[in-house]
Amino acid sequence: MIASGAVGCVAGGYASLRRGSGPVAAALQAVSGAACLASPLLFHAAAPAFAVAVAIWGVAVAGDSPQFSTLVARTAPAEVRGSALTIVNSIGFAITVPAIATLNRLAVAWPADRIFVVLAVGPIVGLLAMRRHVAAGRRAVPTARGPR
User: Fold this and answer.
1) Residue 138: per-residue pLDDT
2) Which residue, 15, 45, 79, 147, has fewest beta-carbon neighbours within 10 Å?
3) CATH code of the domain covering residue 28
């Protein structure tokens, strides 16, 4: 299941060449959020269905990160681009650590099939924050050489 994240990163990269990083990141976040919200049902699915759902979730949850880095690299002023990328990656790790700690605390008090619903907050907030980039991605279709 862990390797599914690599698939998300590679597939997201190819998709972003056609659709743009904003729309691809938003689509991956939407899939991740939907998986979080559906997790109570997924925990009760047959093992093969559960495995497929977890693999899809892994693709989505890892695949948006390189798209965010691309958005920062393309939009940050050149003189602060490296610092901007460092800050964005640091924020990603800073969000991940408390999320894992929260899940560990919830695992003690809540049924296992309910705790991942809390993670849907991240993709929902991300989707709201990405609205401008999604709209911009629909107007300009980038190529390997940059936006047209």
Assistant:
1) 55
2) 79
3) 1.20.1250.20
Query: Which residues face 142 on adjacent strands?
Result: 147
The single residue listed with the structure tokens 């948006």 is 64
Domain count, the chain: 1
126: closest CA among 88, 100, 97? 88
Give residue 25's domain range. Answer: 4-147
Nearest CA-CA partner of 31 in 88, 18, 4: 4
Beta-strand (E) ranges in 6-147? Answer: 142-143, 146-147
pLDDT over 70 for what percent of the chain? 90
- pLDDT (mean) for 80-95: 93
Structure tokens at 75: 């939009």
Indicate the angle between helix axes 4-19 and 47-75, nearest 10 degrees.
50
pLDDT, average across residues 103-128:
92
Taking the CA atoms of residue 33, residue 39, residue 40 and residue 43 in that order, the dihedral angle to the nearest 10 degrees is 180
What pLDDT digit, counting tens, does each position of 27-73 carry? 999 999 999 999 999 999 999 999 999 999 999 999 999 998 999 99
Distance in angstroms (rounded) separating the CA atoms of residues 16 and 78: 22
